What we know:
By secondary structure, the chain is an all-alpha fold. Helices cover about 85% and strands about 0% of the residues.
Amino acid sequence: MKTFFVFIVYFVIAVIAIVLGVIIGDYGSWYFAWLVGTGMMVLVAAAGGAWMDSQEEDAKAGKGAH
């Protein structure tokens, strides 16, 4: 149920961003792309950090491929 509410919150944020883009006009698509791009950069950085943590844990546990 918590996942559903998180999805709804993100959906509302996306709708607000789209509405703001329409209201702003010609620059709306640029601002929307900036918001989405920034979010994607944060997500990619977080995924990279989680991946590095799992690599370090595997290396400490002796599960490395080396």
